[in-house]
Specification:
ibrinogen binding protein from staphylococcus aureus fold; 6-stranded antiparallel beta sheet; 5-stranded antiparallel beta sheet
């Protein structure tokens, strides 16, 4: 930001933030802090960014996903700042001073919007540095910036060169300077916000699905090649039965294939360098190798299909109506298996309070619960579901796990209850827009989660199906 623009923004902020109470301070990224403030009239969010190419401060209306554990500097600010007394530009430079107070007395928050050297410092009431957002290495000999040292202004820098992106005049935008700055930087923000994060998750899932579909095709091709391995066993047994007719040096032998009815002639290739017994063993080895290969391919085929089913669940959940906490729980699943790579470690444990399953009541008064994400689905199918309860899930499509609690009441739910719960399972599935949907209904004792299985996946040993119309309650 240019100095004149900073002055305009700070002039507006000085009016709206003077005396404002600090409700919360967040640090969604290493160079970004969000102050949630109450000025007695409205709740405001102040953004302070010390990014080297777009350092700035202004009010914001954007939503941000925050770390589960606040970083150290953020924790310090929370402990020291409870109210903003005033703010102003100092040293006729791109430096803003916030005069603050808190449980430990008065302090100053210095925001240096100086491009490459942008920083954020917390000072005590005597001007001594308490802590710094970005530690300055010892190679910077211009000034000493260390906790416990006296704060000195940085040297004034040469005015910025034009970047080709001019700021529109305020009067043409018909908005405040704070709104102007937010609009100016929208679309060029590098810090990951909610929408960026959502798209990243979609791309991560789509990329893995494409990779697994390619693997699935390769496995199916391998299985086709491995289908003839049983003939190697037959030829090995035919050779063993005719060892008396073989001698070393033969390149082939013509025999009667008694595995066919009636028997037919067969010509079996031999290695002339091997003895008759060794030629037979060669075919048995090929048979064993082929059988192991087929077993491995079938195992990989099942694992790949299970993985695709799990990713299908995540893709559906992400596209369905979700809260921030649901998005984060989906992200955590992808992190846990190493699919979601994040350079910024602040984003590795972002979460809100864990989301809770939906609840409803059947026509006869039975409690019905269903999950919004795989963690909730697991909770429903492995913890909430008890003997006597009923479990529901749309057939052949991703969707919510639904439980109808019967417990020890010894009351059998009627068709209205079963159809109602099944309709909910259809409504919270990928088939929610279909007219009629088949839903699996199983007793709790037939629903099991295999050890090591992905979240949200279970085995259903016995079930019946109901055809219902999808129902969504919220």
């Amino acid at each position: 930001m240019k100095l004149d623009l900073i002055k305009d923004v700070v002039a507006e902020l000085a009016e709206s933030l003077a005396g404002a109470k600090v409700s919360k301070i967040y640090q969604p990224a290493p160079d970004l802090l969000i102050f949630k403030l109450w000025n007695g009239r409205e709740t405001l969010r102040l953004l302070i960014s010390t990014e080297t190419t777009r350092s700035r401060l202004h009010l914001t209306e954007q939503n941000w996903l925050n770390p589960h554990q606040p970083p150290r500097f953020c924790q310090l600010l929370r402990a020291r700042i409870s109210r903003i007394i005033s703010l102003h530009v100092i040293n006729d430079d791109r430096i803003v001073q916030f005069n603050c107070t808190g449980a430990q007395g008065d302090c100053q928050l210095i925001v240096e919007l100086t491009g490459k050297s942008s920083n954020l410092l917390l000072l005590d009431d005597s001007g001594m540095i308490i802590d710094i957002l970005k530690k300055i290495s010892g190679e910077d000999r211009e000034r000493q910036i260390l906790p416990g040292e006296k704060y000195f202004f940085p040297s004034k820098i040469v005015p910025e060169q034009k970047t080709g992106k001019e700021l529109p005049p305020q009067q043409e935008l018909n908005c405040s300077w704070n709104q102007t700055v937010e609009k100016l930087y929208s679309g060029v923000e590098t810090t990951e916000n909610k929408e960026d994060f959502y798209r990243k998750l979609q791309l991560t899932i789509a990329r893995q699905v494409k990779k697994l579909q390619k693997r699935l095709k390769n496995i199916q091709n391998d299985l086709q090649k491995q289908q003839n391995f049983d003939s190697d066993r037959q030829m090995g047994e035919l050779l063993l039965a005719n060892l008396h007719s073989m001698r070393q040096g033969m390149e082939k032998i013509d025999l009667q294939n008694y595995y066919l009815q009636p028997p037919e002639p067969i010509s079996i290739a031999l290695n002339p360098l091997l003895k008759p017994q060794q030629n037979a063993e060669k075919y048995f080895k090929r048979y064993k190798k082929g059988r192991r290969g087929e077993e491995h391919s079938h195992r990989r085929l099942q694992e790949t299909r299970t993985e695709l089913e799990w990713l299908g669940q995540l893709d559906y959940q992400l596209k369905d109506t979700v809260k921030n906490s649901d998005i984060e729980e989906i992200a955590q699943e992808l992190r846990d298996v190493g699919l979601l790579k994040e350079k910024n470690r602040l984003h590795t444990k972002r979460t809100l309070q864990p989301s809770k399953p939906h609840e409803a009541t059947s026509p006869s008064g039975f409690k019905i619960l269903w999950g919004r994400n795989n963690r909730q689905n697991d909770e429903i199918s492995t913890k909430i579901l008890k003997n006597g309860d009923y479990w529901f899930h749309v057939q052949h499509a991703p969707g919510a796990h639904v439980a109808m609690k019967i417990g020890n009441t010894k009351i059998t739910p009627d068709n209205k209850d079963l159809n109602y719960a099944a309709s909910i399972a259809a409504g919270y599935s990928k088939s929610r827009n279909d007219t009629n949907v088949e839903v699996m209904v199983a007793e709790a004792k037939f629903v099991h989660k295999p050890k090591g299985c992905r979240p949200g996946l279970v085995n259903v040993l016995q079930y019946k199906t109901l055809t219902v119309k999808p129902l969504r309650l919220n």
